[in-house]
């Protein structure tokens, strides 16, 4: 009996499924496992009624998907964005399953979010949405069942509201259910910076693998939020020149190198954490998309999915792409890229975030906290080791790094499913 392949009108889910099926075929994965691993284990859709500041009631849609728990509790972020759908969450939850597997940490994959526009919400409205969402997904979350974390438009404050609501509902403190919390409330030193630092570490190792030095190289960073800012700051610390950055307000280009520390301070103090109005000598403002097509050694797409696609892939001039965002290149984009471009795939490059979350969870469970030096040393060693594991596998099997990462990751999850006998 041949497998009936799932498809989706959601680009991200369709991409995730295509990548999974073609890797599964290449590794000769047995049909039963293909069927199991091409579906999420559990999908929860909730409605979130909220009284807005003007007294009206609005109902938002929220989601939490547990794609796989074969290797451990479901793990992955919560996104607040108008485009959040069940399909998007399923795709991102699947990616989390492969990410945790590839990183060698004891987690499955999950993802969730709320379809809302945080730019249009007051802090009080955001708090009410977050707390009601927490109450509605309460049956799923737990330190040994499902451990959410920040993603697009969520951060430490949202994690505290979530933790506090669940703790009140259960009548006991539940710090290990959410990661990405502030340091003062059971968070970990280093977690905020972890994803971006990990992306920059992959840039450094990739350049090393190609016989080049990160020092003196030039980089473009798309998206100037959590991942993009710390990626850019770390690249500068490593001696690279960041020539262009962008966010939803547009592109900011300076051929001699941007003052990333200054731009970081600007967005930190901006009421909506945006680059709008940022200025420095030699700065050229341009359309956000156009920074993708500038000449530079490395391009780090750290915004949203689908940034590089069949329509614009051929225009990329950078020689190396390190994917900070989840799914920034569609399969059509991959095919359209100039042939000599090397790509480090998302679920390797941005795994510093979930590895950092794992360290936070370990500290919360033990109630004993590490120094930032210890955290970074463990994180960056693991990131570099994982980079080389995938690089060497790709060379040995003559495949792209994306395909190599899928083959390694799927095998670990499939072996766990087989050993646990989940499909009796
Ligand atoms: N925060 C984390 O620890 C992790 C995040 N990721 C992924 O990284 C990506 C970014 O996440 P965060 O930095 O956490 O989100 P964020 O909300 O902190 O920042 C997103 C940034 O992208 C910008 N942006 C959105 N659309 C854009 C566009 N069309 N062009 C240019 N900029 C645009 C926003 O203005 C903002 O600066 C997402 O794909 C997320 O899933 C992956 C691993 C971990
Ligand atoms: O820190 C985590 O648990 C997950 C972060 C995340 O959502 C991701 O890696 O895409």
Automatic annotation (TrEMBL):
Site feature location: Important for catalysis = 151
Keywords for this entry?
Answer: NAD, Nucleotide-binding, Oxidoreductase
Query: Does Secreted count among this protein's keywords?
Result: no
The residues covered by the Glutamate/phenylalanine/leucine/valine/L-tryptophan dehydrogenase C-terminal domain are 188-421
Task: Report a single Gene Ontology molecular function.
Answer: glutamate dehydrogenase (NAD+) activity
Q: Where is the active site?
A: 111 (proton donor)
State the superkingdom: Bacteria
| Record bears the keyword Oxidoreductase | yes
Q: What is this protein called?
A: Glutamate dehydrogenase
| Provenance organism | Aminomonas paucivorans DSM 12260
């Amino acid at each position: 009996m041949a497998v009936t392949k799932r498809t989706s009108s959601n680009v991200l889910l369709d991409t995730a499924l295509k990548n999974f099926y073609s890797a599964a075929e290449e590794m000769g994965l047995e049909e039963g496992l293909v069927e199991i691993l091409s579906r999420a284990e559990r999908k929860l859709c909730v409605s979130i009624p909220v009284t807005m500041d003007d007294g009206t009631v609005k109902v938002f849609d929220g989601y939490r998907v547990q794609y796989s728990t074969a290797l451990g509790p479901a793990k992955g972020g919560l996104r607040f964005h108008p485009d959040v759908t069940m399909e998007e969450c399923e795709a991102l939850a699947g990616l989390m399953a492969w990410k945790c597997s590839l990183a060698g940490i004891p987690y499955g994959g999950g993802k969730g979010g709320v379809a809302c526009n945080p730019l249009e919400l007051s802090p009080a409205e955001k708090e009410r949405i977050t707390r009601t969402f927490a109450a509605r997904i309460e049956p799923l979350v737990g330190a040994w069942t499902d451990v959410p974390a920040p993603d697009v438009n969520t951060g430490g404050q949202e994690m505290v509201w979530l933790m506090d609501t669940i703790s009140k509902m259960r009548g006991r403190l539940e710090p290990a259910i959410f990661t990405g919390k502030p340091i003062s409330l059971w968070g970990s030193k280093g977690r905020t910076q972890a994803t971006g630092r990990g992306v920059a570490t992959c840039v450094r190792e990739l350049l090393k693998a190609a016989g080049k030095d990160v020092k003196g190289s030039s980089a473009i960073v798309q998206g100037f939020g959590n991942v993009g800012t710390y990626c850019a700051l770390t690249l500068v610390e490593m001696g690279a020149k960041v020539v262009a950055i962008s966010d939803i307000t547009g592109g900011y280009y300076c051929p001699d190198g941007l003052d990333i520390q200054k731009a970081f301070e600007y967005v930190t103090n901006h009421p909506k954490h945006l680059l709008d109005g940022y200025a420095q000598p030699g700065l050229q403002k341009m359309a956000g998309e156009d920074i993708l097509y500038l000449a530079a050694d490395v391009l780090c797409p750290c915004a949203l999915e689908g940034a590089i696609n069949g329509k614009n892939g051929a225009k990329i001039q950078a020689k190396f792409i390190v994917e900070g965002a989840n799914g920034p290149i569609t399969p059509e984009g991959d095919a359209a890229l100039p042939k000599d471009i090397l790509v480090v795939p998302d679920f390797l490059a941005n795994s510093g975030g979930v590895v950092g979350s794992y360290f936070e969870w370990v500290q919360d469970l033990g109630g004993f906290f590490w120094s930032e030096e210890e955290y970074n040393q463990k994180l960056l060693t693991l990131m570099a080791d994982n980079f080389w594991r995938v690089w060497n596998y790709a060379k040995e099997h003559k495949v792209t790094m994306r395909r190599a990462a899928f083959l390694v990751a799927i095998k670990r999850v499939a072996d766990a499913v087989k050993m646990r006998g989940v499909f009796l």
